[in-house]
Every structure is written in structure tokens, then in C-alpha cells.
């Protein structure tokens, strides 16, 4: 029988080490399809340009770190003279990994193939900005079904190529307590995307705004910002301090333990008992397995091979340390100076 369902058991999913997503902007943008919406002339394009410049040069944006790579900006309502003025105003350097295009095909009529062809020529492509979304829409009608079906095609491209696509979109004038309900079009747009950002001025023309951020891979956040006309960039005012992850405490303890032991094979309960030699933190067996599975890919950077296998007596954790693959450069890692958070690490 053809087209049979391909399934995985809960056991397979919970015991498989998956390659984590790469955050090209820490905590905000990763691989997937995103929408940045705002009223006309609010400064969406300035923010989009800043994002592209920052990723292309590897500098922070919105107070957050970036992963450097190629950026493609489809500025479909502009011309090169206007782009040049904007770049000069932002004191941008002439860099070769930021590309612009003034025209593109529509979704379902060549756009997907154009992005794939660009990716083949630029393997380190991180982000594609489409400014504005309506310019690549094939359907004039805006209904939940049509909006969802059209954007899903682009979403599949992001997953296939491992890139981020950020679409610039408009917000309607009608007020709503939920800023995401002010996005032009149906709720199918928000339903199809991996994340949405709503840039809303606190007062028209004030240069002050709140950017509401929500998504499948990011925590809900409200960024209070002001537009700095000296550098033509949005500046975040309320970025919260980074909190230490408890998962990292577990990983640090594992690192200290296995670096001395070299090899371990045993149950989660047995591992927790061994970890007491390097930390006074309370670590539970049902947590240590989860932490290791979720961070197994990150552990490999520190020379730690991790497997979780079924044997006759149940499931056992297997850890092995290889110092030649340890990227920590021999630094002194303690349970209070934890390994990097794998949920937002470069891969």
C-alpha cells in the first residue's frame, strides 16, 4: 500500500537526540516562517534592514546576539536609490553577503524555486526577508483556507533549506487588545507561521513602540523600544537579564564527572548517585535523562558521547568522554558556571 503513515512511538521520540534549531537572533528568530507586522510608516523596513545587516556582519540586534551568515532582502516596494540612502543613513559597510532584489515571483509561481536556487549558490544563507508579503501573494482572496495554504508552501521551504523567512506585513487601523488580531488578513496567517512580531507605536509618531513577540520556539515577549534617528535603528529598552538554566547545572555536573571517569554505563538512578561527587545540587533521575536527551547534541561539542539504550534490565545511560573533541579549551567548568544553553546555541 502506498502513502502509508510514517510513525514514531513516544519511546522513540523521547529517547532520540535531535539536532537543535539554530537561533540566528537569540531567542527571537530560528529556522521557520515568521511575520513582522506593523502600521504603515512605523519603521518595519528599518528594523528589517537592521536585522539583515546584523546577521550579515554577525553583530547584535535588538540587544541579542546573532549567527553570522548570508542575508537576502527582497525589497519589493523599493528601488536601489532608496536602498542606498537607507544604507548610508545606517552607516552600513559595503559587505558581500547581504543581497537585495527588487522583484521576485509569487508563492506557488516560482518564488520557492528562486529561494532554493539562491541557497544553492550561498550555502550559508540564514535569512530571507520579504518586504512586503502582499507582493508575493498569488491569491487576491483572503480567507483562512487560502492564507494558510499559501504560507504553508513557504514554511516547507524554510524547513527543507534550514533557513528563516521573515515576511513584512501590515496591520489594520482597527484597534484590538490583542495586537496580533490587528494583522491584515485572516487568522490563517498567524496559524501557518512559526512566529509573529507585532510592532505597535505607543503613540503615533512618537518613535516609541512595543514589539509583541510570540511563536512556537520562542517565549512570549514584549520589547519596549525607541527609534534612534542618529543611527536609524530600533533600540530595545527593557531586555531582561538572562537567567541561568537548571538544565545547564545538570550538564555541568555531567561534564565534570565524565571528564574524570571517561566512561559510564548505568541507570539514571546510578548516574545521579555518581553526580553527588561533583555537586550538592539535588538532581532527580527522571530529570537527568530528559536533560541529557534534550542536550545530547550540545554535549558532543564538549567531547561527550551520549546514548540511551534498552538492555535486558531496562534502559541504561552510556556516556563516554573524548578530550580531543572537547571545545571548552580546558576551561574550569563548575556547577555555577554552566555550559551554554543549547536551545539558543550555534550549530
TrEMBL record:
InterPro entries in the record: P-loop_NTPase
Name of the molecule in the record: AAA domain-containing protein
Amino acid at each position: 500500500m502506498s502513502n502509508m503513515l510514517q510513525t514514531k512511538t513516544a519511546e522513540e521520540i523521547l529517547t532520540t537526540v535531535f539536532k537543535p534549531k539554530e537561533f540566528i537572533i537569540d531567542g527571537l528568530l530560528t529556522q521557520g516562517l515568521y511575520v513582522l507586522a506593523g502600521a504603515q510608516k512605523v519603521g518595519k523596513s528599518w528594523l528589517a534592514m537592521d536585522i539583515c545587516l546584523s546577521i550579515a556582519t554577525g553583530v547584535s540586534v535588538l540587544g541579542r546576539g546573532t549567527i553570522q551568515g548570508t542575508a537576502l532582502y527582497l525589497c519589493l516596494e523599493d528601488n536601489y536609490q532608496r536602498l542606498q540612502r537607507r544604507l548610508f543613513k545606517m552607516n552600513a559597510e559595503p559587505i558581500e553577503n547581504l543581497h537585495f532584489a527588487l522583484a521576485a515571483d509569487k508563492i506557488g509561481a516560482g518564488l520557492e524555486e528562486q529561494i532554493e536556487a539562491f541557497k544553492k549558490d550561498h550555502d550559508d544563507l540564514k535569512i530571507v526577508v520579504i518586504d512586503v508579503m502582499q507582493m508575493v501573494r498569488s491569491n487576491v482572496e483572503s480567507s483562512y483556507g487560502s492564507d494558510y495554504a499559501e504560507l504553508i508552501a513557504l514554511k516547507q521551504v524554510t524547513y527543507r533549506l534550514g533557513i528563516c523567512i521573515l515576511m513584512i506585513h501590515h496591520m489594520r487601523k482597527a484597534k484590538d487588545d490583542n495586537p496580533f488580531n490587528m494583522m491584515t488578513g485572516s487568522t490563517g496567517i498567524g496559524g501557518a507561521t512559526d512566529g509573529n512580531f507585532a510592532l505597535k507605536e505607543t503613540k503615533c509618531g512618537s518613535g516609541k513602540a512595543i514589539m509583541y513577540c510570540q511563536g512556537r520556539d520562542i517565549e512570549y515577549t514584549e520589547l519596549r523600544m525607541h527609534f534612534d534617528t542618529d543611527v536609524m535603528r530600533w533600540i530595545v529598552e527593557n531586555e531582561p537579564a538572562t537567567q541561568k538554566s537548571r538544565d545547564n547545572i545538570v550538564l555541568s555536573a555531567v561534564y565534570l564527572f565524565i571528564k574524570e571517569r571517561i566512561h559510564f554505563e548505568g541507570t539514571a538512578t546510578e548516574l545521579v548517585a555518581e553526580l553527588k561527587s561533583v555537586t550538592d545540587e539535588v538532581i532527580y533521575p527522571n530529570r537527568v535523562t530528559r536533560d541529557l536527551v534534550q542536550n545530547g547534541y550540545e554535549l558532543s561539542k564538549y567531547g561527550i558521547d551520549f546514548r540511551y539504550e534498552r538492555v535486558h534490565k531496562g534502559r541504561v545511560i552510556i556516556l563516554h568522554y573524548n578530550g580531543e573533541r572537547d571545545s571548552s579549551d580546558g576551561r574550569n567548568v563548575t556547577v555555577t558556571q554552566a555550559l551554554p544553553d543549547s536551545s539558543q546555541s550555534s550549530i
